[in-house]
């Protein structure tokens, strides 16, 4: 069984006194050792199973909507194009800015989570996102719709970042891998399940009704946060007064940390970690890995509605389950590899070994891109499109599992910060591809385009991951020599 690792620990303020430093060390020890238990009723780990389960289910509902709701309209772009009298290609770009702002929204959330606590930064962006979806539903033109969708992406991404500290706070280190895997699964199926459901609803009514249903779903999820959400921040060794539940919604008394210093500290930390060599290189690899799959997700509807396939809305929506199956298989492959590689090298473990999990998925993704592109280029059966898309998603998810595992294990004390940075890189790729891929395909054809994408993918992953492996190996050797002494 894989050893649990400390995914998240509290930071030490630069201006901390010696006594507060000792408290921080005690906190770290108690929260990274699964054998240490506290009898404090305020400790979230001592909450009842029912309370923790309801909170976790509420977190999953928010997390499923983060990506799932952002690409909800992927199967409705044709109908929207007809409604607004614009091209289908132009209509599909309504999601692009929202996808981009998902990355930046997650980064902005990190200092706020640390300063004000988990609950208010989880609840209020959720409320704002619900109204942004409502605004998109009532929009009468593409520009207004796109503006609301962009703000939806900015505020709706928070669950992708806040889930990690909540899981850390509520569960012991032995439970972290299992709970993180369950929570992370919602991100794998959301981008494909959301558009499928949206298409099914839109086929029986219209796109506005479909977005109205999404607004209602956000309302239910928000109500769950209000009813079952609790502030989970807890610092053993510090006197944490019993807080007012109403006050906790507004960030009053949640952390008892100096707001200004905490915000400044974490803003500096996020900026510093963006440019750390291993995170920079693996972030670029994540961006390239996500670019092409997100390009497929946001543009496939236009191809499926056109000859030779001429799918109706139901058929095009059902095709999204190829992406769901591929994503789940990719998660299983990544999970299996991480367990296997740790057992194989447990006696001489190095975190960079997890990065070897990108090579086989990269091959699957490259083959999937070529299968997908050539099937469409030669007008072959739609099964080829489905199989190619599934192979692409297997590679995408398995690669990201390997990279995320490496990054979180390398920087355990900054796990939330690292998660936000990787999220930013992947959304940057998803934002860009929607603008150049349709014109590229129109100019060169799907066969050449997706073949070129496969070549770019392989080259980029090799050129970014290999230097990190070499750098980590050299650092490990230098550390060994330093410990050996003269």
TrEMBL record:
Keywords for the protein's UniProt record, in alphabetical order: Membrane, Transmembrane, Transmembrane helix
Gene Ontology molecular function terms on file: transmembrane transporter activity
Subcellular location: Membrane
The keyword Transmembrane is annotated on this UniProt entry: yes
Membrane topology recorded in Swiss-Prot or TrEMBL: Multi-pass membrane protein
Record has Ribosomal protein as a keyword: no
Major place of residence: membrane
Bilayer-spanning residue ranges: 54-74, 94-113, 120-138, 150-168, 180-203, 209-230, 277-300, 320-341, 353-375, 381-403, 415-436, 448-471
GO cellular component terms listed in the entry, alphabetical order: plasma membrane
Annotated segments matching region Disordered: 12-44
Ranges in a coiled coil: none
UniProt biased composition (Basic and acidic residues): 23-44
Name of the protein in question: Major facilitator superfamily (MFS) profile domain-containing protein
UniProt organism field: Penicillium bovifimosum
């Amino acid at each position: 069984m894989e050893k649990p690792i400390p995914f998240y620990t509290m930071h030490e303020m630069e201006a901390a006194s010696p006594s507060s430093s000792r408290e921080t060390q005690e906190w770290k020890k108690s929260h990274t050792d699964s054998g240490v238990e506290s009898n404090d009723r305020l400790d979230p780990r001592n909450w009842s199973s029912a309370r923790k389960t309801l909170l976790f289910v509420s977190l999953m509902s928010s997390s499923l909507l983060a990506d799932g709701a952002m690409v909800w309209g992927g199967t409705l772009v044709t109908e929207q194009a007809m409604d607004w009298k614009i091209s289908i290609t132009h209509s599909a770009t309504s999601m692009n800015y929202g996808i981009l702002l998902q990355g930046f929204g997650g980064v902005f959330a990190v200092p706020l989570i640390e300063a004000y606590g988990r609950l208010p930064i989880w609840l209020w962006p959720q409320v704002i996102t619900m109204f942004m979806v409502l605004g998109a539903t009532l929009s009468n033109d593409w520009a207004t719709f796109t503006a609301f969708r962009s703000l939806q992406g900015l505020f709706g991404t928070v669950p992708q970042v806040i889930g990690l500290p909540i899981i850390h706070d509520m569960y012991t280190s032995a439970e972290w891998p299992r709970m993180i895997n369950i929570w992370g699964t919602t991100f794998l199926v959301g981008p494909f399940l959301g558009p499928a459901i949206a298409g099914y609803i839109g086929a029986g009514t219209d796109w506005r009704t479909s977005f109205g249903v999404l607004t209602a779903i956000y309302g239910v999820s928000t109500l769950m946060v209000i009813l079952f959400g609790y502030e989970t921040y807890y610092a053993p060794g510090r006197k944490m007064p019993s807080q007012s539940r109403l006050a906790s919604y507004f960030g009053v008394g949640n952390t008892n940390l100096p707001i200004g210093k905490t915000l400044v500290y974490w803003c500096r930390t996020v900026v510093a970690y963006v440019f750390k060599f291993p995170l920079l290189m693996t972030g670029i690899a994540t961006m390239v890995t996500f670019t092409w799959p997100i390009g497929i997700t946001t543009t496939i509807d236009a191809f499926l509605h056109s000859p030779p396939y001429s799918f109706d809305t139901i058929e095009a929506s059902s095709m999204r389950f190829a992406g769901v199956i591929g994503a789940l298989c990719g998660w299983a492959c990544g999970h299996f590899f991480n367990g296997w590689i740790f057992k194989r090298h447990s006696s001489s473990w190095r975190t960079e070994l997890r990065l070897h999990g990108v090579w086989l998925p990269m091959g699957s993704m490259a083959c999937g891109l070529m299968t997908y592109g050539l099937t469409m280029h030669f007008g072959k059966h739609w099964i080829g499109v489905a199989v190619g898309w599934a192979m692409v998603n297997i590679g995408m998810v398995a690669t990201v599992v390997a990279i995320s595992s490496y990054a979180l294990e390398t920087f355990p004390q900054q796990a939330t910060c690292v998660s936000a940075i990787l999220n930013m890189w992947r959304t940057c790729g998803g934002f860009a591809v929607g603008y150049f891929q349709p014109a590229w395909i129109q100019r060169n054809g799907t066969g050449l385009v997706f073949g070129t994408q496969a070549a770019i993918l392989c080259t980029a992953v090799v050129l970014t991951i290999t230097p990190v492996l070499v750098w980590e190996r050299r650092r490990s050797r230098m550390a060994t020599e330093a410990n050996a002494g003269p």
